[in-house]
Amino acid sequence: MEMLHPEWSYQAVLYEMNVRQLTAEGTLRAAAAKLGFLCDMGIDAVWLMPVYPIGVEGRKGSLGSYYSVRDYCAVDPCLGTMEDFDAFVAEAHRLGMKVLLDWIANHTARDARWVTEKPASWYERDASGAPAVPWDWTDTAKLNYAEREVWRAQGDAMEFWVREHSVDGFRCDMAMLVPIEFWNETAQRLRRVKPDLFMLAEAEETYLFDGGAFDACYAWEMHHLMNDVAQQRVRVTSLRDYIYADRRRYPRSAMRLAFTSNHDENSWNGSEFARMGAAREIMAVFTFVVPRGLPLIYTGQEIGYDHSFAFFDRDPLPAYGSNPFSEFYRRLTALRHANPALASGERGGEMIEIRNNAEDCLMIAVREAEGNRVVAVMNLSPYAIHADYYTGIYAGMYTDAMTGRPGELRGHVEEDMAPWSYRILTR
């Protein structure tokens, strides 16, 4: 099903905010003071990791998992008050940014309000009659979606945040573990309250776009391929094959979250510095130019913090301020905002490739839309290469997006390219 997305989302850049680790205080009030910096960097929407009170039973670490929810309609006292939350949203809106709330529909904490206040049938049960534990998430209890009242209560709680607290959408945790019919029905309900609601699924099943619940889903497979290319377990040909196969799998309107890091990758598999090494920068560029991509920046990336955050404890950023990393991301967000060809969904240009002599290393991608063209020349390899290619109809004068300087793309190009080097040309 093709759908129209909120107008702001087509050329948006998302930021995942880990409130616990962003500031020394670890509060919503302190986090709100960072919104101006993010706005200046070109962020359009802030996805807040879960803000709800966290379960105590089976708690992991000193503070527990954000994803072990005790009460869907309250704010974790460690982060502040509901007034602090409202002030955060108001400040984001004042700066022209949207706020997406992390939503965990699959499970609650083991000592959630619903466990004692709602019928036993609201939870899947193990042999002993206790709420079932999904996988090894021993601090959580699995909700039972065979019970229609669970659907209604989830919808009520989500509507509470939209109607009473002005959130602009949701990032839906492990969306594939919950029936798609639930998401379709609930999204329809929420859009009656807020027509330009934005829904992002943390999953990449193609059926997520059947029925119109979701605007975007994760591109996990692409992310893992980017790590593999960076570590040279595979060559760039695998990434190229993925892009063409992916084009056939999803409706043209589907947006795909593209990232070099997020809270799961960072905490469990290491920072982008650890996983991607010298390829870190070009892979970030790739997330901004890939077809249908919806680029994401995770807490710490905007200042180049090379660290894997503790997941269940306080582990805050030590310092914060403008540096070459924030300048790099500022240039990338400006590139995305200025070029309709790079839009997500059905508005952006499909990828056309310029063939070349080193295709197991070099990808030359052209995207065009609304009279705008972007040419990305990317050596996605650890090898110095001698590139040789003909540009045909794409020859001409361009602007280098990362330097702002004018330059010519000649009809026949021969050039030496350093490992992991790139040029992004716009006109």
TrEMBL record:
- What superkingdom heads the lineage? Bacteria
Q: Which InterPro entries match?
A: A-amylase/branching_C, GH, GH13_cat_dom
Gene3D superfamilies in UniProt: Glycosidases
Q: Which Pfam families match?
A: Alpha-amylase, Alpha-amylase_C
Q: Which residues form the Glycosyl hydrolase family 13 catalytic domain?
A: 11-336
- Name the UniProt record assigns to this protein: Alpha-amylase
